[in-house]
Design brief:
The structure holds 2 protein chains of 2 kinds. Helices cover about 40% and strands about 20% of the residues of chain A. By secondary structure, chain A is an alpha/beta fold. Chain A folds into 2 domains: about 180 residues, Thiamin diphosphate (ThDP)-binding fold, Pyr/PP domains (Rossmann fold); about 130 residues, Rossmann fold. Chain A has a 7-stranded mixed beta sheet with strand order 3-2-4-5-7-6-12, sandwiched between helices. In chain A, helix 3 packs parallel to helix 4 and helix 8 packs across helix 12. The longest helix of chain A is centred in the C-terminal third of the chain and has 16 residues. By secondary structure, chain B is of the alpha/beta class. Chain B has one domain: Rossmann fold (3-Layer(aba) Sandwich). Chain B has 11 helices and 7 strands. Chain B has a 5-stranded parallel beta sheet with strand order 1-2-3-7-6, with helices on both faces. Chain B has a two-stranded antiparallel sheet with strand order 4-5. In chain B, helix 1 runs antiparallel to helix 10. Chain B is globular. Classes of the chains: A alpha/beta, B alpha/beta. Chains A and B meet through helix 3, helix 4 and helix 5 of A and helix 5 and helix 6 of B.
Chain lengths: ~325, ~325
């Protein structure tokens, strides 16, 4: 199996999709030089400036034009540069992309893949660090994906580009350099979770970069005789309720951890759903671990205040036992 | 004086389209008054020459994107009046299955990619539809109609710049009816005109009397030819007037007394009628055009009124493919 980075895996998914389908094209700022994180490196040379379209700094036009181009028969991959900047295009995403198919009675789908690099990444402060995935899960019409590994970034991005729905595809900025095995052709269905580690004592649900922290915590716990099962949700909408319930039928204990703010974070939805529909599986009250409701700071020690650490997760696992 | 070069055949066709739009909206207003149309409707009475003249200059496969005041544009692009009326009534067989209503009316089969409930939102979307046509090597163009209020929203800048930067086949039409909702546009707008703004972005612009249907068609034809020839985007500033209020229930009491009365004398339908009479068309013939339009829309009204509500399960249809709810999931 070839090893590549999370960044290269995303690039491979785009490259293969563009080779296979001439209607797939990419649009966003600085794509010609490879994108701000190098995730489009070399693609302009292969596909030209029409299909690797370097856009003005006009997020609303990037998103809005993609909506129109999708309704007119192409399949745009939209690059938002930072998830935070997608807020300049929220009408285009929420009122237009997510609603067009429904409002027009199914006359058109809007097959766009919106890449929104998310999360904390080196002292980037309050406007370049947010994790807003739960916002999008609230919007009917959108699919929301947050991959944690190179294999997933390849397989899920491939699936997102193939999908006829608008997909908010959130890569984590701190994962670009993470390496792992990736097999070309292994497309991962959207909405299916992955058991990242098997265990019997407690179920830890996470996604994106926080998943790796959860796996770190299991090493601490394992030394103490606690075997945690870690579920990588991979997609937030739809999310794999069945996989979580199945794990809980074994462990009876649920911890959800995520990098986003706790209040109205996606952990709230998971805990509510499990409490409503699978209450009988729970042997202990479930726990959410997430950021306090404060903006993300610049200074490293202030920034760290919002992080959920492996120690925090381990402590929660001991508490729930 | 009769214009010597008046194309009577063409004008009478345009006249009939304007009458259809007028009759459609008069029935829509009646339906709103009778609580048969439940949501807001935004009549374009007085602006029929814009819809008619613009669409007359387009091909069926050209894209058209409209506004919340879009009944006329949609009809003129070729949508079926009965399916439209059912949509306004929210009934089965509505052009959007009863899920959009007046403000989201669309007919993709005639290239009409939708009215929009968000002012100016279609400017970027229209640029994108043109972008797709260019990418796929098609020679169709995209036309975006928006109001005078839209030029103060961000998409006007972003979308026009986009179309200019990528030299896209788009015709932007500012259908200027003087009123942005219930505020006079010139009181809240800087600069001289939408055309000046377009020109600042490198887009050639023209102004036209938006109540002269032939002038609108001729200007559009000229601009469309330049665009289709690869000349990049153009802007047409069509100056018209909204004879009624912002919505069908708005009495427009904020307007100075007499303003609308005076503007009624410039109604595009009256003007066309005068020209046709001057060209020798008989009153009987003109009346028959009116009654044909009336009868068509009366039939659409009756049909919509008799149509059933959509099946409730349709509330769950066409949300998305992946992660869609089934009706029982709720």
């Amino acid at each position: 199996m070839p090893s590549m980075t999370y960044r290269e895996a995303g690039r491979l998914a785009v490259q293969e999709a563009m080779r296979a389908d001439p209607t797939v094209w990419c649009v966003g700022e600085d794509l010609g030089r490879g994108g701000v994180f190098g995730q489009y490196a070399g693609l302009e040379a292969e596909f030209g400036t029409d299909r690797i379209c370097s856009a003005p700094i006009s997020e609303a036009a990037i998103m809005g034009a993609a909506v129109g181009a999708a309704m007119a028969g192409t399949r745009p991959i939209v690059e938002m540069r930072f998830a935070d900047f997608a807020l300049c295009a929220i009408d285009e995403l929420v009122n237009q992309a997510a609603k067009a198919r429904y409002m027009f009675g199914g006359q058109s789908k809007v097959p766009i893949t919106v890449r929104e690099p998310m999360g904390m990444w080196r002292s980037s402060a309050a406007q370049h660090s947010q994790s807003l995935e739960s916002w999008y899960t609230h919007i009917p019409g959108l699919v929301v994906v947050a991959p944690s590994t190179p294999a997933d970034n390849y397989g899920l991005l491939s699936a997102a580009i193939e999908a006829d729905d608008p997909v908010v595809y959130m890569e984590h900025k701190n994962l670009w350099d993470v390496s792992g095995e990736v097999n070309s052709g292994e497309i991962i269905p959207l909405g299916k979770a992955r058991i990242a580690r098997s265990g019997t004592d407690v179920t830890i649900v996470s996604w994106s970069a926080q998943l790796h922290t959860a796996l770190d915590a299991t090493k601490i716990l394992s030394r103490e005789g606690i075997e945690a099962e870690v579920i990588d949700l991979r997609s937030l909408w739809p999310w794999d309720e069945e996989a979580v319930a199945k794990s809980l039928s074994k462990t009876g204990r649920l911890i959800v951890c995520h990098e986003a703010v706790s209040v109205s974070g996606f952990g709230a939805e998971i805990l509510a759903t499990i409490s409503e529909r699978h209450f009988g599986l729970l042997k202990r009250p479930p726990i959410r671990l997430a950021a306090p409701r404060i903006p993300i700071s610049y200074a490293p020690n202030l920034e760290d205040e919002v992080r959920v650490t492996a120690d925090d997760i381990a402590q929660a696992a001991r508490r729930i036992d | 004086m009769v214009k010597t070069n008046l194309d009577v055949g063409r004008l009478s066709e345009r006249f009939r389209m304007m009458l259809r739009i007028r009759a459609f909206e008069e029935f829509a207003i009646r339906a709103a008054d009778e609580k048969l149309v439940l949501g807001a409707i935004h009549p374009s009475i007085g602006q029929e020459a814009c819809a008619t003249g613009i669409c007359a200059a387009l091909r069926k496969d050209d894209f058209l994107l409209s506004t919340h005041r879009g009944h006329g544009h949609t009809l003129a692009k070729g949508a079926d009046a009965t399916a439209m009326m059912r949509e306004l009534f929210g009934r089965e067989g509505g052009i959007c299955g009863g899920k959009g209503g007046s403000m989201h009316i669309a007919d993709f089969s005639v290239g009409m990619l939708g009215a929009n409930g968000v002012v100016a939102a279609n400017i970027n979307i229209a640029a994108g539809a043109a972008h797709a046509a260019k990418l796929m090597g098609q020679d169709k163009i995209s036309v975006c109609i928006f109001g005078d209020g839209a030029i103060n929203r961000g998409p006007f800048l972003e979308g026009l710049n986009w179309a200019a930067a990528f030299k896209l086949p788009v015709l932007f039409v500012c259908e200027d009816n003087e009123w942005a909702s219930t505020t006079r546009s010139k009181d809240v707008t800087g600069g001289d005109s939408p055309g000046k703004r377009a020109e600042a972005l490198g887009i050639a612009a023209e102004q036209v009397d938006g109540n002269d249907v032939m002038a609108v068609e001729d200007a559009t034809t000229r601009l469309v030819a330049a665009i289709r020839a690869g000349g990049g985007p153009r802007l047409l500033h069509a100056v018209t007037y909204r004879l009624l209020g912002h919505t069908s229930v708005d009495k427009a009491a904020y307007r100075p007394d007499g303003e609308a009365d005076k503007k009624w004398t410039n109604c595009p339908i009256s003007r066309a009628s005068t020209l046709l009479t001057g060209a020798g068309m008989s009153q009987t013939e003109l009346d028959s055009f009116r009654s044909n339009a009336f009868d068509e829309m009366q039939a659409a009204f009756d049909d919509a009124k008799a149509s059933p509500w959509p099946n409730t399960v349709n509330a769950y249809a066409d949300v998305q493919d992946i992660g869609a709810l089934q009706p029982l999931d709720t």
